[in-house]
Amino acid sequence: MTEVLAFVFLMAGLLMLSGRIVVKNITLLMIQSAALSGIAFYLGLTGSQISWHMMIVGGLTLAVKVIVLPMLLYRTAIRVVVHREVPLSIGMVPSLLIGVLLVGLTYVYIVPVLLIEIHSETLLFPVALSTVLLGCFFMVSRRSAFNQIIGIIEMENGLFLCALAVTGGMPLIIELGIFFDLLVGAMVMGIMTQKIRGTFDTLDTKELSRLKG
Amino acid sequence: MLYLLLLIPALTAVACFLPLNTRWWERFNVVGSILTGTAALYISLRTLQAGSPLWPGRFLMVDELSAVLVFIIGVIGTICCLYTVTYLRVDRANGEVDSRKTGRFFGLLHLFVGTMYLAVLADNLGVMWVAIEGTTIVSALLVGFYGTRASLEAAWKYIIICTVGITFAMLGIILTFHAASGILGAEEISLSWRLLYPVASSLNPSLMKLAFVFVLVGYGTKAGLFPMHTWLPDAHSQAPSPVSALLSGVLLNCAVYAIIRFHLLASATGGFSGRILILFGIMSMVGALPFILVQKDIKRLLAYSSVEHMGIIVLGVGLGGTLGYTGALLHMVNHALGKSVLFLSAGTLTQIYHSKLIPRIKGIGQLLPITSTIFMASLLAIGGSPPFGLFISELNVATRSFEAGSSGLGFIFLMVVAVVFTGMIYFAGKMYFSDLPSRFPRGERFSAAHVLMLLPVCLLVLQGVYMPGKLQGMLSKVVSYMIAGGVN
Q: What is the ipTM of this complex?
C-alpha cells in the first residue's frame, strides 16, 4: 500500500515538470499531498497499535496541504497569473528528462552510495529525497514567481516524507511548527506575488533581476 | 522568565497592529522595546555571571552561549526599534511611507525581534529551525516594506533563497535526530541541546558529518556565507535602514549561532566540521573582497562587509581553541555593535541625500557634523582599526590562524582585512572629504538619535581600550563552555 502511495507521490512530482499550466500544477500538488497524508494514515493504522502521532500528522497534512493551501493558491492564481501558461527557462522535454535523471541519480547514487549510513528499510526514503530535488529543479525550470511557491511546497512535501522514512516522524511539536511556518510562509509569499504583480505587471522572474553587483 | 522575552515583543506587536494613530504606535514601540531590552540584559548578564543555565524550561533555555546572543539582540534590537521612530518620521515627511502603515512597521519589527529571541532561546533543534524560518518570513515583509520595484525584488529573492536553503538544514536535523534516536530514544527530548551535548561523542560520526554539511548549507545561506550570500546585499540595501541594521547586526549572528551549536555537536566526533568552517570562512572573506572594492552603493558596501565579517567569525569558530573562540565571540558582539551603528548613520545620510550612491553623497562632514563623525568612527571600527574592539577580536582570530592553521591562512586573513580596510576608507574619504553641493542647508542639532548611535560606539571603544575584569571573566566562562563541547 505504501508503495502505491509513494509511486503516486513521485509521479505527481514528475508530472508537474511536464505541464506549464498553473492550475494543473496546483492540482498535482494537491494529489501529492493527499498521497503523503495517505502514507501517514496508513503507517499510523497498520502498526501494532494505532499511532496517534501519525494520525495527527496525516490529518494536519490533509487539512493544511490538501485543502487550505491549494485553495489559497487557486485564489491567488486567479488573481495574479496573467497567462495560463508560465514561461519556461528550460524546455518541456529537457526538463522532464532532467527530472527523470534526478530520480535515477537518487536511486542509483545518492541513497546507496552517499547516504549509505542511513538504514531505512522502506522505499520511502529515495522517493522523498528525489522529490526534494524535483521541487528544487521545478523552481529553477519555471520563470514564474508563482511557481516558485509551488516548488517550495513540493520540497516541503519531500522533506516531510523524508522525516517519516528516516525517523518515523519528527516530534509532534516540531511538526506543528513546520506546518505553521509553511502556512504563514505560503500566505506571505502569496501576498508578495500580488504586490509584485501590481508593481511589475508580470510574475516573470526575468524582470526580477535588476539588483546586481 | 524566559517566556517574558517572547511575550513582550508579541504583545507590543499586537498593540502596534491596533488601528490607532501614529502617536500611540510610537509610544507602544518605545515602551515595548525598552521593556524587552531590560529583560534581555537582565537575563543575559545573570546567566553570564552564574556561568550555568538558569531558568531551565521544557522548550526554552539560556546557557552561556545563548546569553551572548541575547545580549546582542537586547542591545541592538532596542536601539534599532527606538531609532525607527525618528527614521519613520523623516520618511513620512518625505512622503515615502504612508502614516497608516507605520503601525504595521512597528508591529512587524517587534515580531522580528521576538522570533530572533525564540531562535536563540530554543532548547530544541526543531523549534530553533521553526524560529529561524519565522525570522525569514517576518523580515521579508519588512525588506519589501517600501513596495518599490527594487525592494520587492530583494524581498522576493530573500524569502525564496532562504526558505529553500533552510529546507536543507531540516534534512540535517532529520539526520541528527536519526543518529540521536538510537541513543536517547525517540522522544522529542532527544532533539534537545542540553541532552545531546553529553552524548555527542557517541553519535555516529559519518551521519554527523553529513548532517553538518546540510546544516551548514542551510543556515549558511541565512548567515550569508560566500557562495550562498546572493540574497544578502539585495535585502540589506533595499530594506529600511533600521531593518538593515537588525538584519546585519543580529539576524546573521543568529544563523551563525545555529551553526556554532551544530559545530559543537559535530566536533565531538572529529575535526571535519572545523575544517569545513575554516574553508567557508576564508571563502566568504575572499569572495566579498572584489565586491567591496568596486561598490557604488553605500548600503551594498556595508552588506558585503557583513559577508566578510561573517567569514571572520566562522573562521574563528572553525579554528577553535581559546583564542579562536574568544575572537569569534568578541567579533560577533563587536561586529553587531559597529555594523548596526554604521547602517543607522548611513540611513540618516541616504534619507537626506535621497540617494544610496556613494558619488552622490558628498561633503557629509559639512552637512551633518555629528552623524558623519559617528559614521566615520564606526567605519574605522568595522575596518578593524584600534582603539575599537574589532581590532582585538580580529587580532585574536589572526593569531589563532597562524598558530593552528598554516602561515598561509594567517597571511590571507591579514591581507583581506587590510585590503577591505583600504577600500572602505577610500569610499568614506570620498564622502567625508569633499565639498558639499550648495543646495543643502548645513549643520544639525544634537538629538536623541545620536545618543542611540553613540552608545554602541562607546562600548566598542571601552572594549578596545580597557576590558574590565568582570567582562573578561564572563567571556572566559563562555569560551570554556564551548571548548568543553557545550557541557557544564
A: 0.91
Whole-angstrom distance, CA of residue B322 vs CA of residue B256: 18
User: In angstroms, rounded to a whole number, what is the distance separating the alpha carbons of residues B223 and B259?
Assistant: 9
Residue-wise pLDDT for A30-55, tens only, equals 999 999 888 888 888 887 777 788 88
Q: For chain A, give every domain's residue range.
A: 2-200
* Domain edges within chain B: 2-483
CA angle, corner A36, sides to A35 and A42, nearest 5?
85
- Chain A within 8 Å of B238 (Cβ-Cβ)? yes
Give the chain B residue whose CA is nearest to the CA of A150: B160
CB contacts of A170 in chain B (<8 Å) are: 126, 173-174, 177, 191
Q: Are B334 and B389 in contact (CB under 8 A)?
A: yes
Dihedral sign for Cα B106, B112, A205, A24, please.
Answer: negative
How does A148-162 read in b/e, with b if 16+ C-beta sit within 10 Å?
A: bbbbbbbbbbbbbbb
Cell 541513543 maps to which residue? B183
Q: Is the pLDDT of residue B384 over 90?
A: no
* B124-145 pLDDT, tens digit each: 888 899 999 999 999 999 998 8
How far apart (Å, rounded) are the C-alpha atoms in residues A136 and B184?
33
Nearest to B339 by CA among B465, B466, B457: B457
Q: What are phi and psi of B80, to 5 degrees?
A: -65, -40
B357 close to A (CB below 8 A): no
Q: Do A195 and B164 touch (CB under 8 A)?
A: no
